[in-house]
Design goal:
The complex is a heterodimer of chains A (104) and B (417). Chain A is mainly alpha-helical. Chain A contains 5 helices and 2 strands; from the N terminus they run ββααααα. Chain A has a two-stranded antiparallel sheet with strand order 1-2. In chain A, strand 1 and strand 2 form a beta hairpin. The model of chain A has no long low-confidence stretch (mean pLDDT 93). In chain B, helix 1 runs parallel beside helix 7. The radius of gyration of chain B is 22 Å and the shape is globular. The chains are: A mainly alpha (104), B alpha/beta (417). Chains A and B meet through helix 3, helix 4 and helix 5 of A and helix 5 and strand 21 of B.
Chain lengths: 104, 417
């Protein structure tokens, strides 16, 4: 785990750049993180991100695409449009949460 | 004296373990313990992985549930239609009602092929298979034998699934199976996952990534299947990617029991949200969920059912006496991973610590973490006896309940620029 500067904010990240401290994320940071992966955030992006942030503390894990889709009401196909290619990974990155992963 | 009633739903790994442990701890003249399950036979699920690759039929995978439960535990066989947490009652589909003071939900998770369009139908158990059921595992065995060549796709619909390493194990065992038959050039194996890698934890990925390359098992990542076009034998993803197959071995979407969703005690996949340290339902304090039926942020695995049951039992005994619950589950999981050719890996981890290399359970082993050894394979084989004779009866095993760093070490971490 390392500490890096994104803009003028210092954040703790893992080896892939995912935030490791839930409390260090801000809305502004989200914009900067999205820009790093060439995504411009719209209201629809924010709907998914807000759900992920709110869900994480009680669920204990970053929500899967299916969970985001069912509980936030965004069709899975649309999540692939908003965050192309690797939506689960990209959403987690922008939302400052651990990337969804298996046990090994 | 009015008996207090503990009702346990499900007589699988967690349900049986908890029933047996609590029967020993709770006074028989004060406590009635009832276990409800829908069928009479207990399945040793880890045994199903070997069924497709074994020659003989004598697989010790089924034993009567009644034989595995201590005296003084009532076993009811029946289908549960509803849980009414306000009335503290379980409704059975035959009309029976069972009332409880405390409820333990241990109904596990089940593969749901009906949830992916195109999975069920004329090709189910013909060119589309699953191996998480007895019927499925035996059907796959025939299909593997009859396969003359082409692309074998091993696939996972979504996470979480129980025994998350099993599809990888299947791919390894299939590669060894066809290599031993001299068919390695006729059979192409592709592993398809919704995750961003076959191995997603950094250290395990570094240690084990080569295992797939060496065996020429291709990996397709970030693939979330929307439907199966069984006529064209093609998996179609939500973002319109297509993967063709000649033989598909899939792990369907896993969901908890439907009655849990209907009861208001479950989440979108019918798992019971619980406190991850005490296993108490977040919706109802007299309800607990153990085993695969809850939403713990760790693997759905027999070892988790075992370790969490030990913590749960201690907490439950405190709770019913009106005391605070002081025992805390750390998410400890310990899983064997078959890698073929009589070898296996072992991984040991918890909520906070990913699988690390080293020795287990002690500094000198005898089992190796994140390394292929024959000892690990034999450990998995020997585990079947331990399961029936020690684990289910609720006896202590010589491994720590909470994950220990004994024998483990952290490799130097690479810092990426």
């Amino acid at each position: 785990m390392t500490v890096v500067n994104l803009g003028d904010t210092r954040i703790h990240v893992d080896s892939e750049g995912f935030l490791t401290e839930y409390g260090e994320w801000t809305d502004e940071l989200a914009g900067q993180l999205a820009a790093q992966i060439e995504i411009e955030l719209t209201d629809e992006h924010w709907k998914a991100i807000r759900f992920l942030r709110a869900d994480y503390p009680s669920h204990g894990e970053t929500a899967t695409l299916r969970r985001v889709s069912t509980l936030a009401g965004i069709p899975i196909k649309q999540l692939f449009v908003l965050f192309p290619g690797k939506p689960a990974k990209k959403m987690a990155y922008v939302a400052g949460l651990p990337k969804p992963r298996g046990c090994v | 004296m009015v008996m207090r009633r503990l009702v346990i739903l499900g007589a699988g790994t967690a349900g049986t373990t908890v029933a047996n442990k609590l029967r020993r701890r709770l006074a028989p003249d004060e406590w009635r313990i009832t276990v409800i399950d829908r069928d009479r036979d207990h399945l040793y699920q880890p045994g199903l992985l070997f069924v497709p690759f074994e020659r003989d039929d004598s697989m010790d995978v089924l034993r009567p549930r009644r034989d595995l439960l201590r005296n003084g535990i009532q076993l009811l066989i029946g289908e549960i239609s509803a849980v009414d947490p306000d009335r503290k009652a379980i409704r059975l589909s035959d009309g029976g009602v069972v009332c409880y003071d405390y409820l333990v939900i241990a109904t596990g998770t089940s593969p749901r092929p009906d949830q992916t369009p195109g999975m069920l139908g004329p090709e189910w158990h013909r060119s589309i298979h699953d191996f998480y059921t007895c019927e499925g595992a035996f059907a796959v065995r025939e299909a593997l034998r009859d396969f003359t060549g082409g692309r074998l796709v091993v696939h996972v619909v979504d996470q979480p699934i129980k025994c998350p390493v099993a599809p990888l194990e299947f791919a390894f065992l299939a590669e060894a199976f066809y290599r031993r038959r001299g068919m390695q050039d006729q059979v192409e194996i592709v592993y398809v996952t919704p995750l961003d890698g076959a191995f997603t934890k950094p250290i395990a990925s570094r240690y084990l990534g080569r295992l797939l390359d060496e065996r020429k098992i291709a990996v397709e990542t970030d693939f979330l299947v929307e439907r199966i076009d069984s006529g064209r034998k093609t998996l179609v993803s939500y973002d319109d990617r297509e993967i063709g197959y000649d033989l598909l071995v899939t792990v369907p979407l896993n969901m908890g029991a439907d009655f849990i969703g209907a009861s208001g005690l479950g989440d979108e996949l019918n798992y019971v949200p619980v406190d991850k340290h005490t296993l108490q339902s977040t919706a109802n304090p007299d309800v607990f969920a153990v085993g695969d039926a809850n939403d713990l942020p760790t693997s759905k695995a027999g070892s988790v059912a075992h370790f969490s049951s030990e913590i749960f039992v201690e907490n439950f005994c405190q709770y019913v006496e009106g005391r605070a619950m002081t025992h805390s589950f750390d998410g400890h999981a310990n899983c064997f991973v078959e890698t073929g050719d009589g070898k296996g890996l072992l991984i040991d981890f918890n909520y906070d610590t990913e699988p690390l290399p080293g020795q287990f359970p002690l500094g000198f082993g005898p089992l190796s973490l994140l390394r292929e050894t024959r000892a690990n394979h034999w450990g998995k084989v020997a585990f079947r006896w331990i399961y029936w004779h020690l684990l289910l009866p609720g006896r202590r095993l010589p491994v720590p309940t909470r994950m220990s760093m004994t024998g483990k070490h952290r490799p130097d971490e690479e810092v990426r620029p």
